[in-house]
Specification:
The protein is α+β, with helices and mostly antiparallel strands. The chain folds into 3 domains: 10-74 and 136-257 and 307-364, Alpha-Beta Plaits; 82-131, no CATH class; 262-303, no CATH class. 50% of the residues lie in helices and 9% in strands. A 7-stranded mixed beta sheet has the order 2-3-1-4-5-7-6, sandwiched between helices. The radius of gyration is 24 Å and the shape is globular.
Amino acid sequence: MRRARWVVPPSLESKRPVIYHCISRVVDRRFALLGDEKEKLRMFMRMYENFSGCRVLSYCLMCNHIHLLLEVTPMPAGGLTDNELLDRLRAISTEASVTGVARELAEARQKVAAGLGEEEVLVGRIHRRYTYRMHDLSEYMKGFMQRYTQWHNRKHKRTGHLWEDRFKSVIVEDGVAVKTMAAYIDLNPVRAGIVKNPEDYRWSSYGEAIGGGAKGNGRKARAGLVRTLRAHKGVAADAALWRTDVAHEYRKILLAGAGERVEERVEQSGKMKRITKRKGLTKEQLDAEKQRLTEAAEKRMEEIPFGRMLRCRVRYFTAGAVIGSRGFVDEMFETARERFGPKRRDGARKLRGEASAGAGMLWSLRDLQKQ
């Protein structure tokens, strides 16, 4: 009998954002997700995001597996209005189906007005038919993955399962942990050697945020990353905030340990302007000074162990169960103490191996030192 998925208990849901890193792999690790398939998969991902009310903070669609950083938001206080429910349904249903539900709701409202029944029974029954699939981790993942599988099987004239077993999920604390996890996800194609720069991969949140237009999914990707970097401060997912210091901060995390382009490194160090204002330097001397500063910046960036860690495969980030500060991991451990033996006294485990650069700042619920 398989164990229940590790989720944030209801007692803690109101205290902080509930965020999960979700991973799912194609059966036999086949390279089944090519360009057209990734585009369709992203389309279903966004459709069910609009329907469910869950929020995709970061994602990366690879050829044989996918990563999603998903915030499971709470149902609005008082539930959804009829119009809000119909708008959610339009994300995944045809207009004819939505029209049918609207007719049902109108008839139910008429009966309530005529005293032929209670609103909770007549109208609530229609709402519950759909709302049980909203604001729920498993329902979100099941919905968009099943919808994609049906499309994929039709296109390739195949039957059966597409995804390997259940998806895996890791609870992620807001703040440093969720920023690190988002960068780890967006750096997947860099680790795989597909691209050198994360913005060059179009099927990831960062690539979409950089390459997308002012409207549509590019805007959604930017809003998700804004929420990623500012959720611990209570900032909402607002794409308009991307062009503030958010984009700059996230880029620094992504490029830590890898260096940036010459112009950006020198400009970020704040020394470019000071160099250009110096008197008495020839052009050759000025270029030599810029080159010296560039090489020094490169050396500093390469010496950042945390940045190098993100360019390695970190098993804690996909199998650690809970990732966050020591206090957060211990708190999650206490809410599910019955899962562990009597000898275990606390939950937080120090990151080791390739992840040791994050030790002391990030902790895991599982000790994965041994393979």
